[in-house]
Amino acid sequence: MPMIVMLLLFAAMMYFTQRQQKKAQASRQDLLNNMEIGSEIITRGGLHGVLSATNDSEGTIELDCEGVFLTFERSAVLTVKPANSTAVSDGNDGFAEHVENRAKSSDKEESFTDQLADDSEHALEDLQEDTESIIKSESPFIDEK
């Protein structure tokens, strides 16, 4: 009798495990089947891009990553964010936006580097002053010969 109960528990565990795996597999297949041109894709390797073309016969997709078009297997897709609009972009709009944002951030970077250089100069001046004052003072740590 105890052996039958253990077999029934084992069979129930296997059934529920397979059921969960089938549900996960079905939801992944729906995700891959419902990809639209313009959807934002993240691959298993961590690459972010916009879906620009699909090839169902070869099982591949083409991603637009800021003007660089890359071909991946459909199985490389990790997540899909639906397209924001139904219109397909030619890819140049995103690139122009990227260039503008880069120009704005480079202005900030330049001001940051200027500030860093000024801070370094002040720190060097302070260090030199401290060194001179230590040398001029009668410090027990400095042996005079």
From TrEMBL:
It is found in: Cell membrane. Residues 95-111 have a biased composition (Basic and acidic residues). Keywords: Cell membrane, Membrane, Protein transport, Translocation, Transmembrane, Transmembrane helix, Transport. The keyword Cell membrane applies. It is a single-pass membrane protein. Coiled coil: none annotated. GO terms for biological process: protein transport. The keyword Amino-acid biosynthesis does not apply. It comes from the Bacteria. Pfam families: YajC. GO terms for cellular component: plasma membrane. Its main location: membrane. Residues 86-145 are annotated as: Disordered. PANTHER family: SEC TRANSLOCON ACCESSORY COMPLEX SUBUNIT YAJC (PTHR33909). Belongs to the YajC family. This is Preprotein translocase subunit YajC.
